[in-house]
Amino acid sequence: MSFSLIRNIKKIFSYKKQQDKLECIHGLKVYSMALIIMGHRIMFFIGVPSINTNYAESFYNNVETMVLLNGPIIVDTFFSISGFLAAYLILQKRDEKSKNSNFIFLYIHRLIRLTPVYALIVAFYCTIFVKLGNGPLWEERIGVEQERCISSWWANLLYLNNYINTDKICMFQSWYITCDMHLFLLTPFIVWVLRKSTKIGFVLLGCLISMSILSTFLTTFFGKLDGILLLYINTLKDPTVDQTFKNIYIPTHTRASPYLVGIGTGYLLHRIQKSDYKLSKRVVYIGWFICILTMEAIVYSAYIFYIPSRPYDPHTAAVYSAFHHFFWSICISWFILAISTGHGTLIDPLLSWRPLNSLSKITYTAFLCHGGIQLYTAASLRTPMTCGVFNLIWYSLGDIALTFTGALVLTTFFESPVIGLEKLLLGSNTKKREPWQKNVELKIDSKTANDDVTPISFIHVNSV
To the nearest whole number, what is the mean pLDDT of the chain? Predict the structure, then answer.
């Protein structure tokens, strides 16, 4: 039954209301995935020949455009969600005394869930992709990408590509998958410590977060790197030429703090749900106000790094680089805690909209395939593009539609059958599952699945 097309599609579109109010996770994942796709569209929008080059230059001179130019911060949303779901899922399995909660099983489970479909996409880049089109930019884009994948495919599949061959990284967004895998390896141990002693567990989390922040600060300061990944044309054409990308943006140790904050959030929510603790209205109002203000400050304050006349200041760059990931993840964690405890009346309907439940199940495959779709459109150009807000939105909406369509096909025909086989081989199927398990499951930053379906977070991640 794992290869039943009808059964797999039904699982993706099936819906059952969750009792623990975690449906907001679906919305956070899908909206964040859409923003990541839009952010990567900018990469292929400005980084290709254009008719109105003045528009592209003016793009960097307006503080309003920081919503787009500082878009990579959205990746920290996925890291936070991934850490949260990883910890929360493990704690739930521990409560059930499930055999699937032991360390070895969790690691094998994660490898089987992530690797086969990932390997399929890497193989596609190495072989078939280059034969699917042509154009004046085809070899420069697709040809180079194929060469990189042939050279570095093994680093991807060993989850080492954010440290090895970073100048030849296969699939520019794949660094996120590697980071997520590395951080997941720590999660069961951290959760075990938290269960043994909450105090020692949070001291451990605090130490790990501090180490990540400190390493980011020191690397930025002594390397005289930028406070953020500056999305200038050269970087957009090829991120691997940027030292900030290679030394700050993609290494696991510099991106760990949001994931670790997510682990702490998962533990806190688990404890809150098992107790009668209630947040006061005053705390809720103050929390929402501070978080919204902080997120706006993080996004727009990065404009100082784009001011041409401003001299480089290593102190400012190092402080921003080290702390903005952490504070963004604190805000995302507040969103999750507040909404999951019934304090998100205005935003909860937007995040818990029923169709998002199905889309969230295919966000992992969406994260994997969206870059290829955008790369294809850029490589097959035969005339310069016209830059503009309308065209950016138009292309982004097309990217989102094509990406989720491709993700649906990939999940139905490949990922879901693999997951079914995994459950058959490892005996992880159970007759009775909790409602939250049918709707929320870990994948990358967030593996959501109904039965056999597993999606990201980016994303996934997924910027990546």
Answer: 87
